[in-house]
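[Meeting: bench + compute handoff]

Bench side (C.D.) handed over the final construct sequence. Compute side (W.E.) agreed to return the predicted structure before the next meeting so the bench team could plan truncations. Sequence as handed over:
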Amino acid sequence: MNEQEVPRLDLLRFLERVQERDLARTRDWITAEEQRVAELAARQPPPPPPDWVLETGIGAGRRPVAVHQGFCRPQSARVRAIPADEARRLIAEDTGLACQLCRPDTELGLL
């Protein structure tokens, strides 16, 4: 090893220590930001459920399967909010679409 290689190696090790400190500081900032975002999300109330939802089937046609009141909303990607007039129309066309648990047909005044 000659004399010029030792200072270069020392410089590289110094650079490594500086970068490790910078990385640790950046990770601390990320952790603090994640906590801030989580606290902000916890403070905001969840949006209210829609009044009426339509559950659709699987497949290309995605035919209506059931109409529910918003509180009875099934956990599915095949559910979307609908207005009351559409819920009434769907149930009037096919009474079998009314959910048997939440009874949207009764709430909409169709029975």
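W.E. noted at the follow-up: The mean pLDDT is 89. C.D. will use this when planning the next construct.
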